[in-house]
Task: structure prediction
Amino acid sequence: AQSVTQLDSQVPVFEEAPVELRCNYSSSVSVYLFWYVQYPNQGLQLLLKYLSGSTLVKGINGFEAEFNKSQTSFHLRKPSVHISDTAEYFCAVSAFIQAGTALIFGKGTTLSVSS
Amino acid sequence: DGGITQSPKYLFRKEGQNVTLSCEQNLNHDAMYWYRQDPGQGLRLIYYSQIVNDFQKGDIAEGYSVSREKKESFPLTVTSAQKNPTAFYLCASTKGTGGQPQHFGDGTRLSIL
Result:
């Protein structure tokens, strides 16, 4: 069965510092991987996705992620964060289930950016 | 603009009451999903539907029911059998399978009176 582990539940950083949010996945088949962001009391917004090809994926708001098959990781990075990046971030893997596919989510990482 | 509309934004349930959460999409997506979000738990799949008039249980379907009579609509009923319904509920949709990302509504927050 596929699963996702987000290694940090909370990540506090100062504004303009770099940040990495870590995600490991478990899968015996080819994977599609996603990062989503959630602001308070809102739905999830897609940051970026990995389907195939280049292992470095660029997304919105200056975020990027690197797919590492040997380490089964898909870490999210940003070289310089802003206060407005404060949110919860979810890593997800696409899983084949009965009659279709669904996303398996990690438990989330809360990014807190302070000045 | 196309998107997913969830209503109401806030909902309160009395003891023994069934309540229905609405989810409508105008993205012409085939598949629709309901997730439950609790603090520190991530998102857990309640029900999903790949086509009209067909749906399957997810990981935590007990105490919930759904219908898919139209492609655009996928309402979720929280029944009185769900003893701990307080949570944030998210509806999502996607065009196809595999690598297509899911699009999410803004959620409904359900609380117990």
Observations:
- The two ends of chain A are 41 Å apart (CA to CA).
- Chain A has no helices and twelve strands.
- Chain A has a mean pLDDT of 92.
